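Entry 12.
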Amino acid sequence: MSDERPTSRSPGKKSFFERLGDAFTGEPKDREELLAIVQEAHQNDILDDDSLRIIQGAMNVSDLHVRDIMIPRSQMVSLDHDETIKEWTAKIVASGHSRFPVLGENPDEVIGVLLAKDMLSLSLKTDFNEAEMQKQVREIVRDVNFVPESKRVNVLLRDFRKNRNHMAIVIDEYRGISGLVTIEDVLEEIVGEIEDEHDDESISNIYSNGAGAFIVQALTPIDDFNEHFATNFSDEEFDTIGGIVMHEFGRVPKRDDTITLGDLVVRVTTADNRRVRAFEVSVAG
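Predicted 3D structure (C-alpha coordinates):
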Protein backbone atom coordinates (compact mmCIF):
# COMPACT_ATOMS: atom_id res chain seq x y z
CA MET A 1 0.00 0.00 0.00
CA SER A 2 1.35 3.39 -0.91
CA ASP A 3 2.07 5.90 1.86
CA GLU A 4 1.52 8.85 -0.44
CA ARG A 5 -1.24 11.21 0.60
CA PRO A 6 -3.67 12.56 -1.96
CA THR A 7 -3.30 16.20 -2.84
CA SER A 8 -5.46 18.64 -4.73
CA ARG A 9 -2.49 20.73 -5.80
CA SER A 10 -2.24 21.12 -9.55
CA PRO A 11 0.75 19.52 -11.26
CA GLY A 12 3.62 21.94 -11.50
CA LYS A 13 2.15 24.32 -8.90
CA LYS A 14 4.51 24.83 -5.95
CA SER A 15 3.34 24.68 -2.35
CA PHE A 16 3.74 27.65 -0.02
CA PHE A 17 6.80 26.12 1.64
CA GLU A 18 8.41 25.39 -1.71
CA ARG A 19 7.89 28.98 -2.80
CA LEU A 20 9.18 30.26 0.53
CA GLY A 21 12.30 28.15 0.07
CA ASP A 22 12.75 29.45 -3.47
CA ALA A 23 12.61 33.02 -2.18
CA PHE A 24 15.81 32.47 -0.23
CA THR A 25 17.76 30.28 -2.63
CA GLY A 26 19.08 33.18 -4.66
CA GLU A 27 16.75 32.67 -7.62
CA PRO A 28 15.73 35.95 -9.32
CA LYS A 29 12.48 37.24 -7.79
CA ASP A 30 10.75 40.60 -7.95
CA ARG A 31 9.70 42.43 -4.80
CA GLU A 32 6.00 41.90 -5.37
CA GLU A 33 6.40 38.12 -5.40
CA LEU A 34 8.59 38.16 -2.31
CA LEU A 35 6.12 40.39 -0.47
CA ALA A 36 3.24 38.08 -1.45
CA ILE A 37 5.14 35.11 0.03
CA VAL A 38 5.81 36.99 3.25
CA GLN A 39 2.15 38.02 3.55
CA GLU A 40 1.07 34.43 2.97
CA ALA A 41 3.45 33.35 5.74
CA HIS A 42 1.67 35.80 8.02
CA GLN A 43 -1.73 34.46 7.01
CA ASN A 44 -0.51 30.94 7.81
CA ASP A 45 0.67 32.06 11.28
CA ILE A 46 4.33 31.47 10.41
CA LEU A 47 5.05 35.17 10.95
CA ASP A 48 3.40 37.21 13.68
CA ASP A 49 2.23 40.80 13.23
CA ASP A 50 5.47 42.36 14.47
CA SER A 51 7.65 40.19 12.23
CA LEU A 52 5.53 41.03 9.19
CA ARG A 53 5.71 44.74 9.95
CA ILE A 54 9.50 44.62 10.32
CA ILE A 55 9.99 42.74 7.04
CA GLN A 56 7.66 45.10 5.19
CA GLY A 57 9.38 48.10 6.77
CA ALA A 58 12.80 46.84 5.73
CA MET A 59 11.58 46.36 2.16
CA ASN A 60 9.93 49.80 2.04
CA VAL A 61 13.00 51.65 3.33
CA SER A 62 14.70 51.40 -0.06
CA ASP A 63 11.82 53.41 -1.58
CA LEU A 64 12.19 56.31 0.85
CA HIS A 65 14.35 59.40 0.65
CA VAL A 66 15.72 61.40 3.56
CA ARG A 67 13.14 64.13 2.94
CA ASP A 68 10.40 61.59 3.72
CA ILE A 69 11.55 60.85 7.28
CA MET A 70 13.58 63.86 8.41
CA ILE A 71 12.69 66.10 11.33
CA PRO A 72 11.86 69.46 9.66
CA ARG A 73 13.83 72.54 10.58
CA SER A 74 10.88 74.03 12.47
CA GLN A 75 11.02 71.10 14.92
CA MET A 76 14.80 70.99 15.41
CA VAL A 77 16.19 71.61 18.88
CA SER A 78 19.47 73.41 18.24
CA LEU A 79 22.07 75.35 20.22
CA ASP A 80 23.30 78.80 19.22
CA HIS A 81 27.03 79.42 19.27
CA ASP A 82 26.65 82.65 21.27
CA GLU A 83 24.46 81.19 24.03
CA THR A 84 25.84 80.56 27.50
CA ILE A 85 26.53 77.13 28.95
CA LYS A 86 23.57 77.67 31.26
CA GLU A 87 21.27 78.25 28.27
CA TRP A 88 22.65 75.18 26.52
CA THR A 89 22.12 73.08 29.64
CA ALA A 90 18.50 74.24 29.95
CA LYS A 91 17.76 73.20 26.36
CA ILE A 92 19.45 69.83 26.81
CA VAL A 93 17.53 69.04 29.99
CA ALA A 94 14.18 70.25 28.61
CA SER A 95 14.41 68.28 25.36
CA GLY A 96 15.87 65.03 26.66
CA HIS A 97 17.76 64.57 23.38
CA SER A 98 21.33 63.33 23.26
CA ARG A 99 22.65 65.19 20.18
CA PHE A 100 22.27 68.84 19.22
CA PRO A 101 23.31 70.80 16.13
CA VAL A 102 25.24 73.95 17.03
CA LEU A 103 24.38 76.92 14.81
CA GLY A 104 26.79 79.69 13.81
CA GLU A 105 26.14 83.34 13.03
CA ASN A 106 24.50 82.47 9.71
CA PRO A 107 21.09 80.76 10.16
CA ASP A 108 22.13 78.08 7.65
CA GLU A 109 25.53 77.49 9.24
CA VAL A 110 25.90 74.39 11.39
CA ILE A 111 29.35 74.46 12.97
CA GLY A 112 29.13 71.16 14.80
CA VAL A 113 27.14 68.64 16.81
CA LEU A 114 27.24 68.54 20.60
CA LEU A 115 26.77 65.23 22.40
CA ALA A 116 25.14 65.69 25.77
CA LYS A 117 27.40 63.03 27.29
CA ASP A 118 30.49 65.03 26.26
CA MET A 119 29.17 68.11 28.02
CA LEU A 120 28.25 66.05 31.09
CA SER A 121 31.77 64.66 31.33
CA LEU A 122 33.20 68.15 31.05
CA SER A 123 30.89 69.53 33.75
CA LEU A 124 32.32 67.07 36.28
CA LYS A 125 35.61 68.97 36.17
CA THR A 126 34.78 71.34 39.00
CA ASP A 127 38.00 73.34 38.68
CA PHE A 128 36.65 75.08 35.55
CA ASN A 129 35.20 78.56 35.87
CA GLU A 130 32.43 79.74 33.55
CA ALA A 131 34.77 81.33 31.00
CA GLU A 132 36.96 78.24 30.82
CA MET A 133 33.89 76.03 30.58
CA GLN A 134 32.64 78.06 27.60
CA LYS A 135 35.95 77.57 25.83
CA GLN A 136 36.19 73.85 26.57
CA VAL A 137 32.64 73.10 25.42
CA ARG A 138 33.29 74.71 22.04
CA GLU A 139 36.30 72.43 21.65
CA ILE A 140 34.32 69.21 22.19
CA VAL A 141 31.73 69.99 19.51
CA ARG A 142 32.00 67.25 16.90
CA ASP A 143 32.07 67.41 13.11
CA VAL A 144 28.81 67.63 11.17
CA ASN A 145 27.56 65.04 8.70
CA PHE A 146 25.57 66.69 5.89
CA VAL A 147 23.23 64.72 3.62
CA PRO A 148 20.98 65.85 0.75
CA GLU A 149 17.19 65.53 0.92
CA SER A 150 17.30 63.13 -2.03
CA LYS A 151 19.56 60.54 -0.37
CA ARG A 152 17.94 57.13 -0.12
CA VAL A 153 17.19 55.98 3.43
CA ASN A 154 18.74 52.52 3.01
CA VAL A 155 22.00 54.16 1.86
CA LEU A 156 21.83 56.57 4.81
CA LEU A 157 21.48 53.66 7.23
CA ARG A 158 24.51 51.98 5.71
CA ASP A 159 26.47 55.24 6.10
CA PHE A 160 25.35 55.64 9.72
CA ARG A 161 26.63 52.14 10.50
CA LYS A 162 29.89 52.61 8.61
CA ASN A 163 30.75 56.03 10.03
CA ARG A 164 29.24 55.43 13.47
CA ASN A 165 27.24 58.65 13.19
CA HIS A 166 23.75 58.80 14.64
CA MET A 167 22.71 62.19 13.28
CA ALA A 168 22.97 64.07 9.99
CA ILE A 169 21.93 67.57 8.96
CA VAL A 170 19.69 67.56 5.88
CA ILE A 171 20.33 70.22 3.25
CA ASP A 172 18.33 71.30 0.22
CA GLU A 173 19.59 71.95 -3.31
CA TYR A 174 20.75 75.43 -2.28
CA ARG A 175 22.65 74.03 0.73
CA GLY A 176 20.15 75.52 3.15
CA ILE A 177 19.13 73.55 6.23
CA SER A 178 15.98 71.49 5.65
CA GLY A 179 16.07 69.56 8.93
CA LEU A 180 17.90 66.70 10.56
CA VAL A 181 17.69 62.93 10.53
CA THR A 182 18.83 60.39 13.10
CA ILE A 183 19.42 56.67 13.05
CA GLU A 184 16.32 56.34 15.23
CA ASP A 185 14.21 57.91 12.47
CA VAL A 186 15.47 55.25 10.07
CA LEU A 187 14.90 52.37 12.49
CA GLU A 188 11.35 53.56 13.21
CA GLU A 189 10.55 53.06 9.52
CA ILE A 190 11.50 49.41 9.98
CA VAL A 191 10.31 48.46 13.47
CA GLY A 192 7.67 51.11 14.12
CA GLU A 193 7.52 54.00 16.58
CA ILE A 194 10.21 53.94 19.26
CA GLU A 195 9.23 55.71 22.45
CA ASP A 196 11.52 56.42 25.37
CA GLU A 197 11.15 57.90 28.83
CA HIS A 198 11.37 61.42 27.43
CA ASP A 199 8.47 61.07 25.02
CA ASP A 200 5.41 62.91 26.31
CA GLU A 201 2.54 63.19 23.87
CA SER A 202 0.64 65.64 26.06
CA ILE A 203 3.49 68.12 25.55
CA SER A 204 4.78 67.40 22.08
CA ASN A 205 1.61 66.64 20.11
CA ILE A 206 0.70 70.31 19.54
CA TYR A 207 3.08 73.23 19.87
CA SER A 208 3.64 76.67 18.36
CA ASN A 209 6.04 77.04 15.45
CA GLY A 210 6.78 80.61 16.52
CA ALA A 211 5.18 82.10 13.39
CA GLY A 212 1.50 82.14 14.34
CA ALA A 213 0.77 78.53 13.43
CA PHE A 214 1.04 75.20 15.22
CA ILE A 215 2.84 71.95 14.52
CA VAL A 216 0.48 69.03 15.15
CA GLN A 217 1.54 65.39 15.28
CA ALA A 218 -0.67 63.10 13.18
CA LEU A 219 -1.20 60.78 16.17
CA THR A 220 -2.83 63.56 18.20
CA PRO A 221 -6.15 62.27 19.63
CA ILE A 222 -9.14 64.05 18.13
CA ASP A 223 -10.37 65.13 21.57
CA ASP A 224 -7.04 66.90 22.22
CA PHE A 225 -7.17 68.57 18.80
CA ASN A 226 -10.75 69.74 19.37
CA GLU A 227 -9.88 71.14 22.78
CA HIS A 228 -6.86 73.06 21.48
CA PHE A 229 -8.45 74.50 18.32
CA ALA A 230 -12.06 74.78 19.57
CA THR A 231 -13.27 72.42 16.84
CA ASN A 232 -15.82 69.63 17.01
CA PHE A 233 -14.50 66.83 14.79
CA SER A 234 -16.12 63.46 15.48
CA ASP A 235 -14.05 60.59 16.87
CA GLU A 236 -16.57 57.90 15.88
CA GLU A 237 -14.73 56.88 12.71
CA PHE A 238 -11.17 57.98 13.47
CA ASP A 239 -9.18 58.19 16.72
CA THR A 240 -6.52 60.68 15.57
CA ILE A 241 -6.47 63.90 13.60
CA GLY A 242 -4.18 62.17 11.11
CA GLY A 243 -7.00 59.79 10.23
CA ILE A 244 -9.36 62.67 9.49
CA VAL A 245 -6.80 64.49 7.36
CA MET A 246 -5.95 61.33 5.38
CA HIS A 247 -9.69 60.73 4.83
CA GLU A 248 -10.22 64.28 3.56
CA PHE A 249 -7.32 63.98 1.12
CA GLY A 250 -8.55 60.58 -0.03
CA ARG A 251 -4.93 59.41 -0.34
CA VAL A 252 -1.60 59.56 1.43
CA PRO A 253 -0.65 63.23 1.01
CA LYS A 254 2.87 64.44 0.33
CA ARG A 255 4.90 67.08 2.13
CA ASP A 256 3.50 70.62 1.57
CA ASP A 257 0.11 69.31 0.40
CA THR A 258 -2.54 71.60 1.88
CA ILE A 259 -6.20 71.18 2.75
CA THR A 260 -8.81 73.34 4.50
CA LEU A 261 -10.80 71.88 7.39
CA GLY A 262 -13.48 74.36 8.42
CA ASP A 263 -11.63 77.50 9.52
CA LEU A 264 -8.26 75.76 9.63
CA VAL A 265 -5.60 75.40 6.96
CA VAL A 266 -3.65 72.17 7.33
CA ARG A 267 -0.31 71.77 5.54
CA VAL A 268 1.57 68.48 5.63
CA THR A 269 5.09 69.03 7.00
CA THR A 270 6.29 65.44 7.45
CA ALA A 271 5.15 62.36 5.52
CA ASP A 272 6.42 59.27 3.77
CA ASN A 273 4.83 57.01 1.18
CA ARG A 274 2.85 55.15 3.83
CA ARG A 275 1.63 57.71 6.33
CA VAL A 276 1.58 61.31 7.50
CA ARG A 277 3.55 62.25 10.60
CA ALA A 278 2.92 65.95 11.24
CA PHE A 279 1.02 69.03 10.01
CA GLU A 280 1.25 72.77 10.27
CA VAL A 281 -2.16 74.14 11.30
CA SER A 282 -3.17 77.80 10.97
CA VAL A 283 -6.42 79.77 10.92
CA ALA A 284 -7.78 80.38 7.40
CA GLY A 285 -8.02 83.93 6.20
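Annotation: Confidence is low (pLDDT under 50) at residues 1-9, 197-203. The first helix runs from residue 16 to 23.
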